[in-house]
Write a structure and sequence with these properties.
This protein is α+β, with helices and mostly antiparallel strands and 206 residues long. It folds into 2 domains: 13-82, Arc Repressor Mutant, subunit A, CATH 1.10.10; 96-203, Winged helix-like DNA-binding domain superfamily/Winged helix DNA-binding domain (Arc Repressor Mutant, subunit A, Orthogonal Bundle). The chain is 44% helix and 14% strand. It has helices spanning 13-26, 33-39, 46-59, 83-89, 99-111, 116-123, 129-138, 160-165, 184-188, 192-197, and strands spanning 65-70, 73-78, 96-98, 141-146, 154-158, 201-203. The strands form 3 sheets. Strands 1-2 form a two-stranded antiparallel sheet. Strands 3-6 form a two-stranded parallel ribbon. Helix 5 packs across helix 7 (129-138). It starts with 12 loop residues before the first helix and ends with a strand.
């Protein structure tokens, strides 16, 4: 039985753009330049792929679906104004997270790397292990090291998945939240970016 032959990377720039379009439309997750290069057998440099993706992104401007770059790579997604109609098509309630969970995530996002003790100092209340576990399992935070003090507590930071879920490429793109370093209530009273972009409902629980 003969094995399947390895496909050749397209030489024509138009064919390359068409291939990238098809692959990204079919992918359930964002694809990085490194992964796309690997798929093409390193036949193209990252610069060529980036230029082609920029052209493809321009081709889809103004349509209901757009090509965007996020922290984990490139992906197609529907524009924001389509969301109410998509919710009617698939009326599944989003996961519900407590205010305490989203406040903890906000502190980690803006002050990382931080320990549970750092978070508790800002919030003024204890941070349960369940909150940290929830954020770890969701893929929004990860342990990035340990503080060199007795007990070596874990230091937490946000992940690329967290940024991708917000539609961002880097932490510097997070909206300003100046009060988070001093007093949590005035900085996160409504948690605007997490509440809106992640489309989660806050529960009235501590």
């Amino acid at each position: 039985m003969r094995g399947m032959s390895t496909p050749l990377a397209p030489v024509d720039p138009i064919a390359l753009k068409r291939l990238l379009e098809g692959v990204l439309l079919a992918s359930a997750e964002a694809l990085s330049l490194a992964r796309l290069r690997q798929m093409l057998g390193d036949a193209y440099s990252a610069e060529v792929l980036r230029r082609t993706l920029d052209e493809l992104q321009a081709d889809w401007q103004g349509r209901a679906v757009q090509l965007v770059q996020v922290a984990e790579g490139w992906r197609f997604q529907t524009v924001t104004e389509m969301q109410p109609w998509l919710e009617r098509l698939n009326p599944v309630a989003p996961p519900r997270y407590s205010r305490a969970t989203l406040e903890t995530l906000t502190i980690i996002a803006y002050r990382q790397p931080v320990t549970r003790g750092d978070i508790e100092a800002v919030r003024g209340v204890a941070v349960s292990a369940a909150i940290v576990k929830t954020l770890l399992e969701r893929g929004w935070i990860e342990a990035v090291g340990h503080r060199d003090v007795p007990g070596r507590p874990a230091l937490y930071g946000t992940t690329k998945q967290f940024l991708s879920d917000l539609g961002l490429c880097a932490l510097v793109e997070l909206p300003p939240l100046p009060e988070v370093g001093a007093t949590l209530p005035s900085g996160t009273a409504e948690l605007p970016f997490l509440d809106k972009v992640l489309e989660e409902e806050l529960e009235d629980e501590e």
